[in-house]
């Protein structure tokens, strides 16, 4: 029997939008490899894309609709939702309901959600997690260009001579794009500068790292603009296509570059490099967007590119890399509360009339709806009485997450569409609707460089799960708009979306894919990756090289900007700036990546990175737990002492939740401060106080089944053998053997134990018919154990589990660094020293590490570097 042909699709994670080839195994599994024909990745995948096959199982999936915790059928669930929405609107008006959606929805899903809320319910109360992600860029683009247009393409990163990464950890967050950049650097010597308060994996291989003071990007780029002018590097011809240079320059000259806290020599070197390199691309991401001055940061960067005319030509331009797989598609359909559809403006009566006519909609809102943070404020104070959350987890990821969680819990009617019921948000829903997941659904996504790619189904829809567009359309029909929501396929929706973009094109807007409006089912099925615009007159390419912009006069705007410090609260009582962000191998709230043992091995526990001197001042030792606190909330995290953190700043990852580590919900600490223009929250500059968390006991556990923890601190991760967990508590139980049986949910298990009550030490191994069900290791200080070894034992006959380390003849590989080939740090150090491996490629040749997806290459380089430094010091 020959295998069925591979199915082309797109990775569901980051905005790079890599093409994948899927091969179903016939038993519900999928083999996944990079698509060599996709222009974004040309066959490459990062660690997350490579592990997609480990995340498609049905374990934990929501498979039937549920009303008030009871399984039911679609008719019952949707009739109930339609009735509650209708009643709420009838009693309290259309603005008493809201949708909170996601940049991970497919364009077709998103289009239907936006049409239903803005066109038919008649409210603009639809906002999206893109508010937490891309809103400042959208605002900055619109202010400068008159439209939300990404001018360049990925090729520009390869054709540039200088690439500046501002607030972007490209190595971990857009790994395949970073690999493309590093390959270009090898081929043509591209220079790389990283502008980030902390030293990240993206700094390995960079020429210069500018550790600027948090929130000081406007001061930095204002200084650059003033220097551009002083050096005579402005482009007078291009400036005729812009307005505002004089005011922008006056503001820039008045700025104090000392606000950046940077070494003047480094600052001067950066300006020289930027000014002296025509082919310069400035990449920016959440260090720019997620700020109370986010839109100004964006415009400060755009100012420099406009002043020099370095935009829209090969190898030059500002480049916003988008986070989510369809952040761009969401902007195209107008999914934000202040946008219409097809990049049309909600506040433009002509645009409104055109969309209303096209949709044959009863009413269109005249004013913007509530932006994410305000939307949940309105949920909290009862203005919003019916809420539908689709494909996002706001109880974890919004600022002030504990208060948001409480507001959702108190909302009279909450609907959640998800692929699992085990999320902090889904647990609060009155109605849960099961959506088909990546791999099961069909539609399109647009990546950071405007390339529209198809996601295609390779697996059947499990249980009663339905695609998000289908659920939304069904609700539209049940609310009385049968004709407007009479969709039978995503292809039909895509055609309508493409036709509407033609109307926008008629208004002279950038987003025009009208040439795809006639796509038939076969054409949609076969649609290859296509960069917009796609109209009768335009095909892909770059924007703005010709100096034509989308403001009514056709010109761009430079803005006069001044540095505004992050909005902080707490003062001297909260002396640390809390920076937050991502780690290499997890995706947001981990509902997918957390299922993969390989991905969970990289960093298995939430942490707080802190400078060793700050930790010393506070009496915090490595591996201690730290309590982080401010007026908004608190968290408990594991301390990692590291000089990559500047003094006075700490960093924590965003990924842990009530499901995986309830004390590590980091947004519990982020106050609801937003950028005044974009409404995007300041997610990277909360002020916090720290102190050592005094635990009475610390524990480590491994288990075949999901344990049931309730201690003050716990963090759970998947392993090939089941689970591993870190624990800590404030009161010691009387009997550790019984406690182990309770926590590991094995009340009947046989126990082997070593107990030393006087010193507070306990080791308990639980067996059933000779196989290890789980084990618990406890001490009064953080327990030192060979965790990676112990994590492999559950399910085996391991009699030596109590020893806490492998038998003497079995070397301990150490924490996994290369997820693809499961290579641990100890194995690497040993091989590097024994075989004199000099570079990352040599490591790959010897151990395979780093030779598949390449995501760990920056860490391999850092390891080599630190060994070299150690040797030099010896
Ligand atoms: N592995 C992984 N990849 C992802 C995701 C994921 O969850 N996991 N999520 C995706 C999504 S949705 C997004 S939005 C992107 C985000 O991608 P990135 O923006 O690259 O990621 P972050 O870690 O949020 O933040 C980037 C950097 O901003 C820095 N920063 C903080 N404050 C400042 C400041 O004031 N100025 C400057 N210049 N820098 C600052 C932080 O130190 C951090 O290193 O990643 C996408 N890719
Ligand atoms: N402090 C701090 N907070 C942040 C950030 C930060 O850097 N710092 N970053 C912000 C950013 S940039 C982002 S993008 C957000 C991300 O935050 P969220 O969007 O809230 O996080 P996700 O885990 O991506 O949530 C996606 C949800 O959709 C579900 N899901 C998966 N597939 C499907 C499907 O096909 N259909 C449906 N209906 N559901 C599905 C998943 O199970 C999961 O529950 O977090 C933001 N919050
Ligand atoms: S870089 Fe990685 S996560 Fe992003 S789209 Fe490509 S494979 Fe997926
Ligand atoms: Mo994002």
Automatic annotation (TrEMBL):
Molecular functions (GO terms): 4 iron, 4 sulfur cluster binding; metal ion binding; molybdopterin cofactor binding; oxidoreductase activity
CDD domains: MopB_CT_Nitrate-R-NapA-like, MopB_Nitrate-R-NapA-like
SUPFAM superfamilies attached to this UniProt entry: ADC-like, Formate dehydrogenase/DMSO reductase, domains 1-3
Biological process annotations from GO: cellular respiration; nitrate assimilation
Cofactor: [4Fe-4S] cluster; Mo-bis(molybdopterin guanine dinucleotide)
Entry-linked Gene3D superfamilies: 2.40.40.20, 3.40.50.740, ADC-like domains, BFD-like [2Fe-2S]-binding domain, Dimethylsulfoxide Reductase, domain 2
4Fe-4S Mo/W bis-MGD-type domain location: 4-60
Family membership: Belongs to the prokaryotic molybdopterin-containing oxidoreductase family. NasA/NapA/NarB subfamily.
UniProt xrefs under PANTHER family: NADPH-FE(3+) OXIDOREDUCTASE SUBUNIT ALPHA (PTHR43105:SF9), RESPIRATORY NITRATE REDUCTASE (PTHR43105)
Protein name in the entry: Assimilatory nitrate reductase (NADH) alpha subunit apoprotein
């Amino acid at each position: 029997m020959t295998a069925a042909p591979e199915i082309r699709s797109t990775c569901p994670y980051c905005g790079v939008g890599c093409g994948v080839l899927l091969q179903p195994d016939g038993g519900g599994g999928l083999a996944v490899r990079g698509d060599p024909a996709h222009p974004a990745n040309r066959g490459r995948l990062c660690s997350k894309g490579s592990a997609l096959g480990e995340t498609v199982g049905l374990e934990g999936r929501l498979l039937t609709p549920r009303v008030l915790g009871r399984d039911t059928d679609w008719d019952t669930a949707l009739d109930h939702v339609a009735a509650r929405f209708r009643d709420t609107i009838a009693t309290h008006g259309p603005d008493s309901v809201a949708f909170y959606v996601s940049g991970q929805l497919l364009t077709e899903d998103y289009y239907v959600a936006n049409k239903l809320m803005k066109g038919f319910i008649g409210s603009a109360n639809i906002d999206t997690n893109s508010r937490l992600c891309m809103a400042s860029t959208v605002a900055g683009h619109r202010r400068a260009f008159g439209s939300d247009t990404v001018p360049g393409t990925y090729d520009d990163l390869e054709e540039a001579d200088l690439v500046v990464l501002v607030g972007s950890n490209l190595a971990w967050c857009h790994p395949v794009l970073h690999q493309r950049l590093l390959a270009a650097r090898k081929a043509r010597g591209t220079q790389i500068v990283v502008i980030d308060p902390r030293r990240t994996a993206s700094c390995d291989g960079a020429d210069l790292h500018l550790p600027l003071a948090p929130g000081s990007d406007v001061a930095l780029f204002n200084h650059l603009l003033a220097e551009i002018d002083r050096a005579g590097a402005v482009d007078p011809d291009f400036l005729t296509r812009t307005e505002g240079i004089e005011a922008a320059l006056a503001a820039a000259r008045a700025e104090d570059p000392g606000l950046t806290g940077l070494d003047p020599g480094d600052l001067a070197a950066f300006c020289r490099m930027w000014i002296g390199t025509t082919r310069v691309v400035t990449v920016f991401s959440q260090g720019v967007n997620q700020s109370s001055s986010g839109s100004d940061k964006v415009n400060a960067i755009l100012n420099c590119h406009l002043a020099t005319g370095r935009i829209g030509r090969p190898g030059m331009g500002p480049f916003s890399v988008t986070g989510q797989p369809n952040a761009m598609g969401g902007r195209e359909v107008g999914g934000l509360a202040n946008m219409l559809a097809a990049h049309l403006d909600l506040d433009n009566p002509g645009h409104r009339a055109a969309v209303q006519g096209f949709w044959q909609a009863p009413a269109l809102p005249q004013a913007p709806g509530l932006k994410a943070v305000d939307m949940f404020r309105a949920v909290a104070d009862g203005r919003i009485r019916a809420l539908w959350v689709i494909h996002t987890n706001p109880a974890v990821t919004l600022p002030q997450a504990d208060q948001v969680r409480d507001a959702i819990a108190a909302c009279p009617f909450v609907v959640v569409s998800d692929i699992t019921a085990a999320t902090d948000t889904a647990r609060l829903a009155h109605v849960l609707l099961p959506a088909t997941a990546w791999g099961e659904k069909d539609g399109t996504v647009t990546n950071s460089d405007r390339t529209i790619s198809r996601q295609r189904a390779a697996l059947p829809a499990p249980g009663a799960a339905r695609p998000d567009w289908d659920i939304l359309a069904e609700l539209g029909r049940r609310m009385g708009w049968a004709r407007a929501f009479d969709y039978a396929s995503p292809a039909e929706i895509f055609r309508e979306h493409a036709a509407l973009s033609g109307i926008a094109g008629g208004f002279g807007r950038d987003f025009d894919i009208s040439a795809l409006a006639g796509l038939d089912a076969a054409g949609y099925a076969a649609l290859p990756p296509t960069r917009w615009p796609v109209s009768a007159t335009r095909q892909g390419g770059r924007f703005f090289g010709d100096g034509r912009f989308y403001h009514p006069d056709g010109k761009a705007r430079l803005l006069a900007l001044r540095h505004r410090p992050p909005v902080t609260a707490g003062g001297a009582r909260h002396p640390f700036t809390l920076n937050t962000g991502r780690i290499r191998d997890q995706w947001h709230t981990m509902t997918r990546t957390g299922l993969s043992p390989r991905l969970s091995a990289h960093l298995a526990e939430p942490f707080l990175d802190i400078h060793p001197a700050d930790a010393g001042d506070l009496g915090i030792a490595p591996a201690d737990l730290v309590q982080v606190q401010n007026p908004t909330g608190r968290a408990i995290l594991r301390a990692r002492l590291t000089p990559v953190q500047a003094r006075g700043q700490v960093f924590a990852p965003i990924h842990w939740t009530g499901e995986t580590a309830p004390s590590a919900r980091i947004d519990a600490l982020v106050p609801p401060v937003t950028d005044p223009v974009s409404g995007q929250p300041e997610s990277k500059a909360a002020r916090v106080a720290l102190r050592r968390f005094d635990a009475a006991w610390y524990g480590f556990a491994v288990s075949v089944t999901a344990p049931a923890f309730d201690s003050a601190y716990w963090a759970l991760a998947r392993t090939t053998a089941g689970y591993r967990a870190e624990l800590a508590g404030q009161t010691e139980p009387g009997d550790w053997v019984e406690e182990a049986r309770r926590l590991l949910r094995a009340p009947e298990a046989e126990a082997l134990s070593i107990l030393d009550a006087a010193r507070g030490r306990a080791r308990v191994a639980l067996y059933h018919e000779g196989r290890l069900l789980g084990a618990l290791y406890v001490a009064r200080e953080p327990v030192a154990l060979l965790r990676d070894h112990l994590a492999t034992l559950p399910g085996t006959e391991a009699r030596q589990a109590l020893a806490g380390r492998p038998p003497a003849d079995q070397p301990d590989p150490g924490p996994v660094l290369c997820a693809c080939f499961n290579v641990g740090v100890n194995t690497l150090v040993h091989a590097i020293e024994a075989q004199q491996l000099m570079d990352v490629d040599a490591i790959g040749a010897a151990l395979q590490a780093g030779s598949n997806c390449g995501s760990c290459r920056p860490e391999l380089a850092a390891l080599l570097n630190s060994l070299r430094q150690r040797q030099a010091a010896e």
